[in-house]
Amino acid sequence: MNIQVKTAVASHLSDAQELIALGHSKLAIREINYAKAILFKHPDTTKDVGEDELDAICHNVDNQFH
């Protein structure tokens, strides 16, 4: 399934907001890093991207910080 880049970024930023509200700053930072990585890879936020690619981008972010 494909999703617009801007929707994926907004979703991760919304998750970050919720995590901040719950006091989980490290997890919020991870979500923000996901959003940044997606934007760096796909600067045109109107394009669609596959969920598998989004998962791979997030997985790469996780590998950089562990």
User: Would you count the extended β strands for me?
Assistant: 2
Overall mean confidence score, pLDDT: 96
* Amount of beta strand: 5-15%
**How many H/I helices?**
3
Name the helicity range: over 70%
Oligomer: single chain
Uncertain regions: pLDDT < 50 for 5+ in a row? none
Largest beta sheet: what is the strand line-up? Answer: 1-2
**N-to-C SSE series?**
EHHEH
Radius of gyration, whole Å: 12 Å
**Gap between N and C termini:** 28 Å
Characterize the main sheet: 2 strands, antiparallel
Choose one word for the global shape: globular
* Structural class assignment: mainly alpha
Q: What would you note in describing this structure?
A:
The chain is mainly alpha-helical. 73% of the residues lie in helices and 9% in strands. It is built from three helices and two strands. It has helices spanning 5-21, 25-41, 51-64; strands spanning 2-4, 48-50. The chain has a two-stranded antiparallel sheet. The mean pLDDT is 96.
In short:
By secondary structure, the protein is mainly alpha-helical. The chain has helices spanning 5-21, 25-41, 51-64, and strands at residues 2-4, 48-50. 73% of the residues lie in helices and 9% in strands.
Topology at a glance:
Blueprint: E1 2-4, H1 5-21, H2 25-41, E2 48-50, H3 51-64
Antiparallel strand pairs: 1-2
Question: Which descriptors would you attach to this protein?
Answer:
66 residues; mainly alpha
